[in-house]
Write a structure and sequence with these properties.
Strand content: 15-25%
Helix content: 25-40%
Low-confidence stretches: none
Strand order of the largest sheet: 5-4-1-6-10-7-11
Order of helices and strands: EEEHEHEHEHEEEEHHEH
């Protein structure tokens, strides 16, 4: 079985959308989370969908599943305090076996290409973990204190990680439980870091520049502007 876990649990404080979390803000007539739901629904590789969301929006997610034709939506799990907690909540909600796969998607990347999803399912046959990346276009400078530069990394070997990520269920669950079992010095934001800590190789597939993450209001404006071009590229009505 191939499961998709869609993360829709944040409050989007940086987005400044009042009381409405950004993943539920409408883009061209649909809440953003519905785009991720439809992407998973339309992909032949994905068998079942779990949306992890805020408890007060559970009924809304089920309604959107009916409204937008998402019969693969089988589970809605309660979001945790952190992204890491939400992923784990989603893993606990699905009846997956160790050899099954879990694709972690986000509700705030509405322009995810089917080609990118298909690349994941081609590679996950050979690997236990697959992430999406695009090549970095600028150098990246690391700073421990945010004031002084500690190290500058040149762009030739750097990649920017996008969604989605896909893992063998047993590997991802082991990685999360290992992280949960010891006191943490810092929060981890990407599942790939946890999996790499197990010394499990993680393969990369190249995404595309359409798949922007909507973090700030201007990101939503960009996504809306790109939407007609994205639909043309995907070969579907806008």
């Amino acid at each position: 079985m191939n499961y998709a876990i869609i993360l829709a649990g944040g409050y989007g404080i940086r987005f400044n959308s009042g009381n409405l979390p950004k993943q539920f803000v409408e883009m061209t007539g649909m809440p953003m989370v519905a785009y991720s739901m439809k992407t998973a629904q339309c992909n032949a590789n994905i068998d079942e969908i779990c949306v992890v969301t805020l408890e007060e929006y559970t009924s809304h997610v089920w309604e959107w599943g009916k409204q937008y034709g998402i019969p693969k939506l089988k589970y809605v799990a309660k979001a945790g305090v952190t992204r890491f907690d939400s992923v784990y909540s989603g893993m606990c909600a699905i009846p997956a076996k160790e050899s099954d796969t879990v694709m972690i998607m986000t509700a705030v990347c509405p322009l995810l290409a089917q080609e990118t999803v298909n690349k994941h399912y081609s590679l996950i046959r050979e690997h236990d973990g697959v992430i999406t990346v695009v090549k970095a276009t600028d150098a990246v400078t690391a700073s421990d204190d945010g004031i002084m530069a500690d190290r500058t990394l040149q762009k030739e070997k750097l990649f920017v990680q996008q969604g989605p990520q896909t893992y063998r269920y047993g590997v991802l669950r082991t990685a999360h439980e290992a992280y949960r079992s010891v006191p943490q010095e810092r929060e981890v934001y990407e599942d790939s870091e946890l999996v790499l800590r197990l010394n499990v190789p993680v393969a990369m597939v190249e995404g595309d520049r359409f798949c922007i993450k909507v973090t700030y209001p201007e990101d939503l404006a960009i996504a809306k502007a790109l939407y007609p071009l994205f639909c043309e590229k995907e070969g579907r009505p806008g």
